[in-house]
Amino acid sequence: MDRKDKLINDIQNLLNTYEGIHKTSINPDLLKFMDEESLLSIIDSLLDQKEASKESDMEWLEKFKTYK
Fold first, then answer.
1. Could you give the C-alpha distances from 63 to 23, 40, 55, in angstroms and in order?
2. What is the model's pTM?
3. In sequence order, what are the residues at sequence separation of 6 or more whose Cβ sits closer than 8 angstroms to the Cβ of residue 21?
């Protein structure tokens, strides 16, 4: 597996870590035209989204601590 294939696989795996969303299967041919930098940018964006969603979940959970 070359580096681009690994990056495409990583993107698919990141998309499939969201709970409550059906499994995502990406046709690698759709992303093969992108360069590695673009694929890395997609991965960075997905990771940023995951982090932002975790932060909002933590903020929501922190509200319950104040009601003790």
1. 32, 35, 13
2. 0.68
3. 15
- CA-closest candidate to residue 13, choices 47, 41, 37: 47
Do residues 50 and 21 make contact, with C-beta atoms less than 8 angstroms apart?
A: no
Burial label, 12 (beta-carbon count in 10 A; 0-12, 13-18, 19+): middle
- Among 39, 50, 44, smallest CA distance to 8 is for 39
CA atoms within 13 A on the CB side of 41: 6
Q: Give the residue among 21, 2, 23 at the shortest CA–CA distance from 12.
A: 23
pLDDT tens sequence for the chain (68 residues): 799 999 999 998 888 887 767 787 778 788 888 999 999 999 999 898 888 777 677 777 677 776 55
